[in-house]
Amino acid sequence: MSALNRHILQSQPSAARRWEAAAVWLFRSATYVILLCGALVFGNIVFKGSKTVFTTTAPFINVAFLTEAPESLYVFEYQGKKREMGDREFRAFKAQHPDASNVKSESYVYSAGGIFPCIVGTVLLVVGSMFIALTLGVSAAVYLSEYATQGRVVTAIRLAILNLAGVPSIVFGLFGLGLFVIYLDWNVSLIAGWFTLALMVLPVVITASEESLKAVPKGFREGSLALGATKWQTIRKNVLPYALPGILTSSILGIARVAGETAPIMFTAAYVVRDKLPWEGLTSVSDFFFQGVMALPYHIYVVSSKIPQNEYTERVQYGTAFVFLMIVAAIATSSILLRNKLRNRYKW
Amino acid sequence: MDIKTPFTASSSGRSSPVSAAPVGAILIDIDHVDFYYGASQALHDINLKIEEKKVTAFIGPSGCGKSTLLRCLNRMNDLIDGTRVAKGQIKIRGIDIYDPSVDVIELRKRVGMVFQKSNPFPKSIYENITYGLRLQGRSNKSDLDAVVEKSLRGAALWDEVKDRLHTSGLGLSGGQQQRLCIARAIAVEPEVILMDEPCSALDPIATVKVEELIQELRTKFTIVIVTHNMQQAARCSDKTAFFYMGKLIEFADTRAIFMNPANAQTEAYVSGRFG
Predict the structure, then answer these.
(1) Which domain does A254 fall in, by range?
(2) What does pTM read for this prediction?
């Protein structure tokens, strides 16, 4: 009799409803799987990396790791006690204890000291390449969307730019090697790395800048032109400022990519190890641009795959990865803050 | 051709020249203009003379070409790819404004424009007004202050905004925004102000204020206004041009167009039978 008591909107089991439930669970579990993977990767790096970066005693941060250059680690037994020392420390120790000069030690490359030169190198690479990418990219976007006559040529250029975004980063690395390092004879240098990385993020910057420019209402342009402004005055005073937040949003993604890529810099800018910091030993201003640097992603690559693995190298690997994540997060956060400030200033 | 020759109709209809010589002198001479968007012709042989310090209204149904013609007068159509004046000339004070020697920047300084959708820049009221002056390199503070006050007074907005000149122009109401745009246009002291349906997005009270403003501005500027609203044309214009399908059907004194149209199509339109 219950069938008779049903009202017309009463829910009833049906195939459509079961599929609905199945679909929702599929999407939900897919989302959670992704979340889990992300949490595992980040958790692993943060957990293992923080053991290197933070200490249990004041000042709670491993200052040496952040401010010193990489050194070899020496592990040896002396007077029945196992000791671990960095290169310089070990030499000083031997000088103090003449009887230790012939002690049998095992050495592990890059496993002592810190990663300061890599931090400096990565920051320099990011700042320089984003400056170049934004200058070139925004200019190209302004030309394409504001000046160029829309037609086949512009469409073809846009298509080419989009395709550039799909080129693997190692190809950019080889391109940079061929053009900047060899043909232009810039050698392995900051400037070669800047241009290689900038070319790699250009498609993202151009595409996003064009989108941001298009999002600025046409009325602002017409209003300005109708007051006797030239096109460039209009763009500079009344279009670009409003498009800037959007352009910055895209460049934040660019920063993460530029900072993170290893392939484009391994042939063009990165040194495995360099004992001088970028501002040391310069004889002229141009020397600054034509020197190679150490970089965090390349350092991670070197310490995780180019040297024998053991418990001592793990410390550097995870420590470097952790610092690397923090630096990218810091740069991205400051860009986001800048963007939000601009966005509040020019709201429409 | 059954189109009335506009100028003869208008000059014969004019009976009482109240003020001095410049009033009624021909400022803009639109001489047999054909205009194209790419391959499609938007204006057919438009022939029309706009008099100085008068309000001229363009009326007609949507797509009749009235806005297109208006945007020809300060070459705003240049911004659209593939547009061209294929035939005829538009002369302002005898100078063909489509001549290659004409600097479109100078033209637009002299022929200001107010748009259908009010478009104050997302800057302060003060910066909105001074935008055009700064483009011309004027940056003297007291000079700018004076122009801001004069322009806002001219646009009947001064009393409403004088205490918040440095707040965003977007914080104003719709009607105030449109008057701000008018103030911005008159700040650069143009000779002509083009108005492209300036009240179509405004409520009736704001519309009345803008119309009153047009009545005040006519003493100093030549005004060309495109409107969908026939009552508006009747209320605030001296002369009215009726367009239909890209053609100028009739151009005469506003009174004549509304009371005694010479053309059957005009009569049908102004009496509300189509459009």
Answers:
(1) 116-220+247-345
(2) 0.80
